[in-house]
Amino acid sequence: MTADPPDCDQKKVWERGNLSFEGEVEEAGYQNGPQLWFLNALELSAPASPVLLECNAPAVPSGWLQLSGHPKSIAPVANGIVRKRVSGPHDTELLAYRQLMIDPHAVKVVPKFYGVHQCFQSGGETGAGGPECFIELHNMLHGFVDPNVMDIKMGFRTFTESEVSNTALREDLYRKMVAVDPNAPTDEEHRARAITKLRYMQFRENMSSTQEKGFRIEALKMRGCTPVTDLKTIKTDRQIQGTIGHFVGGRRSVAKDILKRLKQMRTAIEKSSFFGRHQVLGSSVFIVYDDHQVGVWLIDFAKALPLPKGTKVTHRARWQMGNCEEGLLHGFDELIRTMEAVQHNVHQQQRHPSRASEV
After folding, report:
1. Where are the alpha helices (DSSP H) in 162-248?
2. For residue 67, is pLDDT > 90?
3. What structural domains and CATH numbers belong to the chain?
4. pTM, whole model, 2 decimals?
């Protein structure tokens, strides 16, 4: 597999191959080009300030990359392992990984879990704040050389039902909504100048492909380029296929390997008892490849919540309050269909390179 030179020009990213999005950008009201799809106003709250991971960990190497999540919440240590900060010994993600490792199907789709590491902040065991707890996971970048990386958030619901159960009207969320789209509120919401959290969360996720496709492209990094982390408003089939097509970079073998792995993961999730017992919110498909290999995993289980007794989910049915559906497998179905289209486009471009260059 031979790598092409990096193409970091933002406009070229979205015009790769036979795809051009300028018309769609203008129709959406973003008159100054595709880079204005990248909206920061959708953040619901500022991230917490995580402690620095200084517990016997070496300096973060120059090749280390964290595409999403709270800054400095994850750091590499020795021997292909990363540490991720968790709240304590009963943390939801820690409990999830312990169960995932003993599920013969689920263990095939997630990074390997090595255990828990506990350390104390400066001041010793009696110092302020007490011990800090970290889970140790396989470093998915280990063994790759200057790779291309993509993070895809899965599901058509990424918030918990408890997060949106409060029906109080909030002026701050109304202001956030109109900052993104002044026409989004209804006449009644404009008069009240306030909306519920559920209304805001659904508005935010409707800005992306989350609600329709069950996945959204969260972030990507091409070799030699800076990470692109605000892709949440990429929504149409053309935009999604164009972005993933650029990520694949015309490499048919990469598209084929990613597609094969996604199908394997979907089958494993369908057979898994863990996924049969949990609603899995906010997890991501993490894709990485270089000139020699491709890796794909399902990551992030901070909101993998056990189902109430007697509740069953398909991971495909639409969510209604109380049914616990989140659309994880619906997202895999749609992502697989997208990758099939990308693979077909790459094949067509290789068969007819002159057509692609004429566009």
Report:
1. 171-180, 187-192, 197-206, 210-213, 237-248
2. no
3. 50-156+214-351 (3.30.470.160), 161-208 (no CATH)
4. 0.78
